[in-house]
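Lab channel / #folding
Pinned by the channel admin:
"Please post every new chain as: sequence first, then the structure tokens as a reply. Keep commentary short and put observations after the output so the thread stays searchable."

First post following the new format, from NK:
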Amino acid sequence: MDANVKPLVVLTDTVLRTLASNPELRNEFPVLAQLLQFKAVAPKKSGCGACNRNRAGLAQDAAIYNAVRQQIVSMGDARRRLLKTKLNTKKIQVSVQDGKKLVKVVF
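Reply from TO:
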């Protein structure tokens, strides 16, 4: 067994964004391209900003990341194996928002 293989990779927002910035992975897994097609909405410039964050923009970002995660979870076994090979890992963990609960999927 290869000593460099990671035991687990967790697909957080940051990891997904990093994967999306890799052209090879983006071509192999077009679902990642969705993360580069949106721009976060800038918060309004009134007050100190701490309470006036653009919650609609944050909710939109979360919905896009969740949709990408759901598509990754629904990939077939062959695509999942390919993703694990590309990420050099034995297992991948993806957390998907399902209604009000967070579901963790490991494959």
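NK: The helical segments are 13-20, 23-28, 55-73, 77-87.
TO: also worth noting, The longest strand covers residues 89-98.
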